[in-house]
Amino acid sequence: MENKDLKDGGMKISRRNFLKGVVTVGGAAAIAGSPWVSPLAWGQEKKPIKLGGMFSLTGAFATESEDQRRAIQMVVDEYNKKGGLLGRPIEFVVRDDKLNAGEAALKAKELIEKEKIDLAIGTLGAHTVVVYNAECKMHNIPLMALNSTNDLNKMPDWGPYTFHEGSTPYMITHSMGHWILNNLGKKWYFLCGTWAFGQQVYDGFQKFMAKYGGENLGKSDYQLGATEYSVHFPKILDAKPEVLITTGFGKDYVNQAKQLTDFGLTTKMKVVFALTELTMGKEAGQANISGTYGGTQFYWGLQDTIPTAKAFVQAFMSRYGQPPSGYAGFAFSGAKELLGGVERAGVLDPDKIRKQLEGRTYDNYKGKEWWRKCDHQSIQDWYVLKGKDPKESKGPWDFFDIVGKIPADEKWERTCKELGFKP
To answer: What share of the chain is helix, strand, coil (3-state, %, to 5)?
Structure first.
């Protein structure tokens, strides 16, 4: 059979001479102790590292989820401008779980099996991230979770390559519970969503009250994405609480803030949102959040006292024309940690990436945080915000005052033993 010619830079190379060269080069490489790379693989050296991002871009948390996507894009672009990660460009592949567990399962499989992602990040729903985590665990893909859930840092849900940048509802309730008790009142009523986060917040406050005091006057449940809350108000008013604690977030927060104000409940009791956000405050309107309280991991006003917060806020504002939300902060920091772990490891090896993060202390946007080694939970400061009076607002994004800070401490979270980890 006649040999076929291979063209290389205008030169004809016979099949026999090509194979002879392979043997020669391969032997030389073996003698030198270094691996030989086939010329056929040269074009694959710049194959992108795929970062799979799942977000709830449709539904009650769409605004906050889009803020997370934006923050991660900033980090990805920063790396790519410097030449990428491990000498390869980063491709950020995004999917929308629509705040639905079934959709999250489908999109997780799509990211992993079709897109062949190397790393994973997201998502905002406490019920959707569990599905994403399960799929990532099955394929040994490092996942950086960016929400508030109790389910990622406990056995058997925990994964060896899963890290949780968000605070858990247990941490939120036990850190903020003391502040509420000492500053707002001891008689509490709860307005709770029926999804995972809402019920975990209620469970956390129940455990807090059993240990530290406070009186539970009752609980009303609402469906995620509900639009009418006034049906719960007669029961709340009859209970006469000093404090109404609600798990309203995203569109739920917006609707609750408006209706609680319209029906006068904000003048009869202290209203506390377990989580509050810049984006939600803007949509609800200054008059409707005035005098209400809320917990958060980050507020852009921290730029006045924390250098990394100032750098983050200015970069986000320069790119998007508005300050970042707290959930954008989770995403920014989580992306920094995940990609930084790969960079320090020098390879896309899950075990080596894990070792670069476990027990690490870091400051990406809000001051000192650290990864607890046993469960990969981020330990960080928590803040209490109060909605400003419209007359006191100094600008279009000046919605809140920081009225409380609970310093980072592992005592706010369940112990490693309680979470199922061996000593």
So the answer is: 45, 20, 35
**Helix, coil or strand: residue 384:** strand
Let me know whether 262 and 393 are in one domain: yes
233 located within any domain: yes
Mean pLDDT of the 405-417 span: 97
Region of residue 245 (left: phi > 0; alpha: psi -120 to 50; beta: else):
beta
- Give the residue carrying structure tokens 């405050």: 281
Pairing of strands 382-387, 400-406: antiparallel
Cβ count within 10 A of residue 329: 29
Is residue 44, in this structure, part of any structural domain at all?
no
Domains in the chain: how many in total? 2
Partners of residue 243 on adjacent β-strands: 188, 270
Q: Using alpha carbons, select from 61, 57, 168, 52 the residue that is nearest to residue 121.
A: 52
CA distance 324 to 314: 9
Question: Which position has the token pair 């491709």?
Answer: 91
What is the overall mean pLDDT for the chain? 90
- Rounded Cα distance between 119 and 356, Å, is 15
The CATH number of residue 394's host domain is 3.40.50.2300
**Does any domain span residue 230?**
yes
Is the domain of 205 the same as that of 240?
A: yes
Interval 229-245 mean pLDDT? 98
Task: Considering only the C-alpha atoms of the chain, give the largest distance between any 2 of them, rounded to a whole number of Å.
Answer: 95
Distance separating alpha carbons of residues 339 and 351, to the nearest angstrom: 14
Judgement on whether residues 292 and 393 belong to the same structural domain of the protein: yes
Radius of gyration for the chain, computed over Cα atoms and rounded to the nearest angstrom: 25
pTM of this prediction?
Answer: 0.87
